[in-house]
Amino acid sequence: MEIGKVPEAVLKRSVFRKLTVKRPEVLVHAGVGEDCSVLEAGDGEVFVLSTDPITGTANDIGKLAFHITANDIASSGAELVGILLTIIFPPGSTEEDLKEIMDDVTSLAARYQVEILGGHTEVSPVVNQTLVSVTGVGKARRDKVVTTGGLKPGQELVVTKWVGLEGTSILAGEYASELKERLPGELVDTACGFDRYLSVIPEAAVAAGAGVSAMHDVTEGGIFGALWEMAASSGVGLTVDLKKIPIRQETIEICEVFDINPYMLISSGSMLIGTDHGSLLVEKLQGAGIHSAVVGYATEGNDRVIVNGDEQRFLEPPKTDELFRARWPE
């Protein structure tokens, strides 16, 4: 494809033809020349919006871009209605590259009944790898919206699935052959498949139905970053037992190879939840087939403490994600 806007003929056959989901809330759908979509909200409902780009990898970026924004919307207790999709390709990209991204995004959109409302596609010399950015639009009852900052002292903290899933999947996929020289091939293959866990829509639905007070999907900065952000947003302290944070052995071993901290690794697929009844929520999640664990509780004040046996460390504001530090050891 040449530099500039993707041609209309390519858009029609490789983008618009794939847009099969049409939501009743959408009054103006995606189309050539349509720069805006129009949505209608019902009485007592609010729209919830979120946006994120994918910059940490060039592999499976369509899937990752969808999940990250869908997870943000789900964490608010809202239903994702539609997304706006921006794709910027470097020179030398092909229509097949566009089709691959659209196939990944539209398959997930169909699974979750999400309409692709519009977006932008172009080829530009200012990027050296494909950039995908997704803006999500969700809807919720005004009185059912859940925020990151709703945690209160005394409430328990629940973490779903396992931390580090996204980062592990990315590293295992990008360095599969090298990792198999150091680790069992079955372990690496299993880690590559962690991308099937990246959606938190199921656990968000269970948690919202249980009446939780705070939800935050665990993304850049890992679980340590998510804990800090929830505590800071809520104005509370934390006490968290490191040994109770659920983590897969595959993540631990791959992070050891790269000498990075798995608890500070991008972790889409895991959700941090604040609730009055942690054990009850864990039971409800287990009933839905979702692994989870109570890892700690909120406290008065501003001390955010991670306990590991007899040792303690204080959390700090999140810095650069460990994924960006990962380099194959010489």
Give a quick summary of the entry:
The protein is of the alpha+beta class.
How are the SSEs ordered, and which strands pair?
Blueprint: E1 4-5, H1 8-14, E2 26-28, E3 38-39, E4 45-54, H2 61-75, E5 79-89, H3 95-112, E6 115-123, E7 131-141, E8 156-160, H4 165-174, H5 176-179, H6 185-192, H7 201-210, E9 214-217, H8 222-234, E10 237-241, H9 249-258, E11 271-275, H10 278-287, E12 292-299, E13 304-308, E14 311-314
Parallel strand pairs: 5-6, 10-13
Antiparallel strand pairs: 1-6, 2-3, 4-7, 5-7, 8-11, 8-12, 9-11, 10-12, 13-14
Helix pairs in contact: 2-3, 4-6, 4-9
Shape: globular
Helix content: 25-40%
The largest β sheet comes out as: 7 strands, mixed
Compressed to H and E, one letter per element, the order equals: EHEEEHEHEEEHHHHEHEHEHEEE
The fraction of residues in strands falls at: 25-35%
Task: Indicate the radius of gyration in whole angstroms.
Answer: 20 Å
Low-confidence stretches: none
Averaged pLDDT, please? 92
Could you walk me through the main structural features you see in this protein, from its secondary elements to its overall organization?
Strand 5, helix 3 (95-112) and strand 6 (115-123) form a beta-alpha-beta unit. The chain has helices at residues 8-14, 61-75, 95-112, 165-174, 176-179, 185-192, 201-210, 222-234, 249-258, 278-287, and strands at residues 4-5, 26-28, 38-39, 45-54, 79-89, 115-123, 131-141, 156-160, 214-217, 237-241, 271-275, 292-299, 304-308, 311-314. It has 330 residues and is of the alpha+beta class. It is built from ten helices and 14 strands. The protein is globular and about 65 Å long.
